[in-house]
User: What shape does this take?
Amino acid sequence: MAKTYKIKNCSELQAERLNFKPTLPEMFKNGPASVKVKLGKTTKSVADQATVKKMFPHTYGLPEISFVKGKSSADTKKAIKAAVVLSGGQAPGGHNVIAGILDGLKKANPKNRLFGFLKGPGGVLENKLKEITPTLMAQYRNTGGFDLIQSGRTKIETPEQLGQAKENILKGKFDAFIVVGGDDSNTNAGVIAEYFKQEGMHTSVIGVPKTIDGDLKNEHIETSFGFDTATKIYSELVGNICRDVNSAQKYWHFVRLMGRSASHIALEVGFKTQPNIVLIGEEVLAKKMTLAQIIDYLAKTIVARSADGKNFGVALVPEGLIEFIPEMKELISALNDVLADHESALEKMHTIEEKKEFVISKLSPKLAKLMKSLPAGIASQLMLDRDPHGNVQVSLIETEKLLVEMLHHKLAELRKAGKFKGKFSAIMHFFGYEGRCGIPSNFDANYCYALGYNAAVLALNKCSGYLSSVKKLVKPAKNWECGGIPLTMMMNIERRKGKEKPVIKKALVELKGEPFKYLVKNRDNWAKTESYIFPGPIQYFGPAHVTDMTTKTLQYEQAKKK
Amino acid sequence: MAKTYKIKNCSELQAERLNFKPTLPEMFKNGPASVKVKLGKTTKSVADQATVKKMFPHTYGLPEISFVKGKSSADTKKAIKAAVVLSGGQAPGGHNVIAGILDGLKKANPKNRLFGFLKGPGGVLENKLKEITPTLMAQYRNTGGFDLIQSGRTKIETPEQLGQAKENILKGKFDAFIVVGGDDSNTNAGVIAEYFKQEGMHTSVIGVPKTIDGDLKNEHIETSFGFDTATKIYSELVGNICRDVNSAQKYWHFVRLMGRSASHIALEVGFKTQPNIVLIGEEVLAKKMTLAQIIDYLAKTIVARSADGKNFGVALVPEGLIEFIPEMKELISALNDVLADHESALEKMHTIEEKKEFVISKLSPKLAKLMKSLPAGIASQLMLDRDPHGNVQVSLIETEKLLVEMLHHKLAELRKAGKFKGKFSAIMHFFGYEGRCGIPSNFDANYCYALGYNAAVLALNKCSGYLSSVKKLVKPAKNWECGGIPLTMMMNIERRKGKEKPVIKKALVELKGEPFKYLVKNRDNWAKTESYIFPGPIQYFGPAHVTDMTTKTLQYEQAKKK
Assistant: This one.
């Protein structure tokens, strides 16, 4: 890394980032040969222990692993081959995970080799792969995106798929198989680890926690990578909008933020920018709020600000909100069934009105009434094609438009009743794709590199069925602690499509957690005032308190634990 | 500025930026007392000289002014009072213009005072203002937004308004009145300068060129402030999307970019990110392209990429495109008339369908046919309320949706004909508000500070009817050249609402200019390949080639002049 690496056709910042050297946790400074495995207690799954144990006879109850300085007992003389795959949506830092794995392997033995399966787990099934050489890697260090090997959403689940994966892993003579993904992909890694052991294979299967949504975390995983960078990008934009709002003083901006289900992103962006309203899906669910109640809540804030002469503001709407509203969840679930049950009948219809009428005729009277009450655009969006798992694609539903359209009606009513005399002009935004492939922040660049390096050390120590774990993340990177957490330890049993399935528990926003409590403590003040904060764009050079700070969510969560 | 200034409730970067010290052009290093006015040749307007001269008897033909080092002939012993107003949409750097004015005035004489009229020219008419003290200013240095004094879109045009402005300027005993705005606002500044001289007032009226759209430039004004920062912000986002597209390889992203009329923003963002398609409104107009021809052009690229196995790409759509399509321009103009002529009849109608039917009945057969052929959503948007000038609000028209919807039809046709076998999934974005209030780039922070300081020097030298001019912007800030350009020099006569009006000529993208020629030379290659560049977020610290570079547009334009 001492020499300066250059590529053609790139921006000035990109060129600089190629030569950024991530900070490695202190214990890894002398390479994998100087890292010792320390075994912790044997573990059990977070819930449903008996069932999970039965499903994972070979990988249940593994001990936690932490790494400490000392002579490694791993045999580094024999060269190994490892393969990595990226699974699911993009998150900033994926390339650094791969760089960390590569550097860890090469440091242990320059003859070790790393391969990447292409386009996600589908590439494992089709045996499409390429070698990640140091020269190839040099063009991707500290960059955003997954374009080095791409990603995909295929799962390796059926007996045929598992058999195919076994065949290709054996064909490639891989000693380790590293899966970079979210909760579902890591559940899948656990299944593969179990299957490989059952089949007598020696290949280590290791997971790496990735997702901008921030919902893959637990007692042992402080955060998933990409959440830091993505929320910083969204915060830059929301902060800019807050400043615009306070300068123009004539619009309400409604910003929908990506995040498949949990509202972590909206919460973190809320902390960083302090807008007037931050909706949290988990709260809506807990309070069993109806759409009408949410509108009442929004209208109350808008009317109160208007009474102070402020016909402007900023509201954050988590993408997943719609599925947390009990009546909407029920409607979406019923629509999923109707669309699946009458696929061929619906295909023959030509207009959306015809389809809508047909669908409504199949709904219960209560849901039919709700469906009819929705703005036409939203009703159409709810009937769009489902994803491969039969779920509605929430990113396609313009919840912010639904809320604004309903607010117009509500405020017109209030105006008639003499309770609202202001103006309400709304501008809407959706931020998602903008943040998934940003240049990773220094935090994510360091974190991902450490996660990858750590995964390599786990592989060299023949640990299988583990998730790469890097902890104490609010401390400087050199003080981070590394190790492995058994994948089975994070699992519970959930019913999916009528079947009991072991899955890694998705972390929703905890209403008793410190981050949400911080919001509750401050939001009334934010609603009334313009306490806006303007984070600005991610900085990579300059004072450490600007460039290296981590998320507020993590700070609040970890502060409590001290 | 030596002491560190802090404010509560702000981000880490914000805190750092408050203490950034802009680089002042060398000639201003020793303050206004050491700057001498050098008069250039007398000037004439860019066109319609006789008419403009007749309309501006007191301010026509003023000489160009450049500043050089030397003993000033201005009397700095007598303290002066100046007032500033921000006019029109936000642009990054407005606060630094004010800081530059303040510092220039105070350096000349600590007793000089600066006031800001509030909420734009409306504040001048209502005499709402506040003093900009150094303490107040310290909270806004190098920040985005116009929230220090806000802005507004009122114009000071009618005899009553001009009289009111005179009264309040005299009441405040202002020696200088500085208008920060775009082409229209600076035209207005020229009118006020002329009026004040005609009324025997000694108050200098000075303009400052502001607009993110980049369309206020000419032989003497290299660029307007804010264009650099806004295009850098949009380029960050578009670059991130390009990386996402190349990672996921399954979507076409259509990105609409703000810019009221001219396509400079789309062009600059195109240079910085090299997407597959960059539409330029001025080219569409010059080639008299119909909507159908634009769709053909887009479809051709999509089909060609698909044939190479690439069902993905990125297309940039300038917000103003719709008004450059001759048939759409005609339709919009006819709609403007119908909406104005039948306002009360339309107000009584309750549904959009009813209104649409009524409007169509008033159009010519050709335009009625076009209106009927448009997707319902777009047709509705075209009938939305007009701005105070009776113009359609292009930012509310989702041109990207129009194009995508029509592309779906076109590609379905091509598929039937066996000419398209690929997939076409589109995701749409609109970026505008995100960029108007970003933290100004180092370039804009320096440029705005110099523009403001220069405006103060013009004011101290009693120059009226001038636009603050800072040139040689591709050189380092210390080498920039400063002076004043007569506002009348940039004017020509245009017919607006049936009346001849003197206006500063709006700079559209020149099809014979170097920037557009660069696009033409490269776009076929960009269309076929993934030559994407990822600029990343604006950097404020670090190597100068990352932090201080200016726009590609300016580089190409100025390179030619060398």
